[in-house]
Amino acid sequence: MRIKSYLLVFILSLVLFFIIGFRLGEKVEKQNQINSLILTPTITPFPKKEIEYQDYKSKKYNLKIIYPKGFQIIESTKEALIEVKKK
Fold first, then answer.
1. Are 85 and 69 in contact (CB under 8 A)?
2. What does the alpha-carbon distance between residue 60 and residue 36 come to, in Å, rounded to a whole number?
3. Between 24 and 61, whose confidence is greater?
4. Confidence at 45, pLDDT banded by 50, 70, 90
5. Comparing 64 with 77, which gets the higher pLDDT?
6. Are 67 and 54 in contact (CB under 8 A)?
7. SS3 readout for the chain
8. Residue 3 C-alpha from the chain's centroid
9. Using alpha carbons only, what angle is made at residue 23 by residues 35 and 38, rounded to the nearest 5 degrees?
């Protein structure tokens, strides 16, 4: 009779742990959903303005670059560096 009571207590404790774990899992999942809603970035549409591009080819470095019009290409004389700056 003593073994049956221990077995009953063991089974009831397993059921209790299962229920507690299930409830904690629900709380964690709910918090994850809240966090994902808060941390999801909003997507803003790009302007529909067409961007015109220019080609640039460096004879010195044998490099071709396509850059937006209105920018200026500056080549460095000391190193292989090409900067694109807005005018």
1. no
2. 50
3. 24
4. confident
5. 64
6. yes
7. CHHHHHHHHHHHHHHHHHHHHHHHHHHHHHHHHHHHHHHCCCCCCCCCCCCCEEEEEECCCCEEEEEECCEEEEECCCCCCEEEEEC
8. 55
9. 5
Side chain identity at residue 35, one-letter code: N
**pLDDT mean over 55-63:** 79
55 beta partners? 66
Q: Are 63 and 77 in contact (CB under 8 A)?
A: no
Task: Give me the residues paired with residue 68 across strands.
Answer: 53
- Which amino acid, residue 27? K
**pLDDT of 74 above 90:** no
| Residue 63 near residue 48, CB atoms below 8 Å | no
